[in-house]
Automatic annotation (TrEMBL):
Residue ranges constituting the STAS domain according to the UniProt record: 423-495
Protein name: Sulfate permease, SulP family
Membrane topology: Multi-pass membrane protein
Primary site of residence: membrane
Highest classification ranks of the organism: Bacteria, Pseudomonadati, Pseudomonadota, Alphaproteobacteria, Rhodobacterales
Organism: Pontivivens marinum
Amino acid sequence: MFLAPRLQRHFDQLFRMSVPQMRTEVLSGITVALALVPEAVAFAFVAGVEPLVGLYAAFMVGLITSLFGGRPGMISGATGALAVVMVALVAEHGVQYLFATVVLMGIIQMIFGALRWGKFIRLVPQPVMMGFVNGLAIVIFLAQLEQFQVRTPDGGHTWLQGADMALMLALVGLAMAIIWLLPRLTKTVPAPLVAIIGVWAVVELLGLDTRNVGDLADIQGGLPTFALPVVPMNMETLYIIFPYAIILAGIGLIESLLTLNLIDEITETRGRNSVECMAQGAANIVTGFFGGMGGCAMIGQSMINISSGARHRLSGVVAALALLSFILFGSALIEQIPLAALTGVMFMVVIGTFAWRTFQVMRRVPLSDALLIVVVTGVTVIEDLAIAVVVGIILASLVHSWRVSRLVSARSWRSEDGNLKTYHLNGPVMFASTEKFRELFTPKTDPARVIADFTESRVWDMSGVDALKSLAERYTREGKVLEFHGLSRDCAKRLGDYTKLVVRDEEHDPKYELFVDRDNPPGEPVGH
């Protein structure tokens, strides 16, 4: 029932769309569908499954996320980031275990969405985001180099030679030139679509001998059919598929939400992270029951769509339905499309995706941020997106903690009679700053009475509380009186025996709680 209002809103938006925008959406969707075919086939081969398993995934994931996702204009389908994880499962246990894993993956993603955990993607720092974009651009570029190679009799690959390489480069260059020049003349039709048709026309008219989509695989098939995964329904099966499902769910959501944020920046609009998590999960559940390999957002196809002018859900729906029509009715025609045309389109996607301003930014930002961009880019290329983002967040967190730890400081002064010294603290007292906090005080040389004023400071965690306890112990050993001023009630009551040192001012004391409290007793409020 809850889907009906959303579908109604989509239809209302469709009828309000102008004719030129509707034309743009339809043509952009067709362009995306053409580019999806070789990608889906290639990723199916990577995962060790039949081409139709990848094509069905691209159709079903693309359609469901376009209808119900949180980011209009974003394209989802079978991706390489997921395929490289799937290959070990398929090789060891077979494709039916993959389908079961994809269903469980979808359930996990829906749980993430229901708990609204998609908002945590905002924790990804800008240098990590920039490294992610650049890394994926390089990955897309490297993937296209396979089109310049041919398989050898021993199963390996070798580069095209002589006239074959020259022809391939010429056709790729023609496609790229059309995409670059056409928008300067007209934006009535998407330039990538014109490039694909133009290169195909040149090949056909001149009778050129070049590789086409049909050389990859036969894409003809029927409608996907519902079937439960043929696996034993027991704990042993769950033990096998659960680790893969967790990894796939994480990779899928990370890539989808980062792509969503990138499109947000380009279009200056805002998608809905948790809604996208729910849609991705639902799409993968359906895909697993209909013989697909699962998927997530595709940055390359999304960039084709956005650069073609698409901004609504219609383009994604058209792309999915066009892909299904290729499978059912148009396989013979689609298989004639030269791979050079699609390679040229993807090369232009690389050029448009790579954040070229990185080279300017790296000269202006701190060295730690510049190194973070390089590390995330490198890990994305060498390993995969999920590992790169995790590594980036960890490194960024360490850098941030180090910077914050250097912010704690204190101004001190003595009373006129010299019997009282006041320390006025600034900055956070936390796990990373406790050592510097300790160095701010001199118990041995301080007078008999000391005030530590935290009005302009904050105690962030239990490490900070322990630092206050340690400070009180130092002054107690010296036989001196220490008073804590400006602490929140939550912080004060966690000082244990030293709570009596806190001087309260209910009107002016801050009202914050601790971020972390592992020893929080039952019923006591936990910090935010």
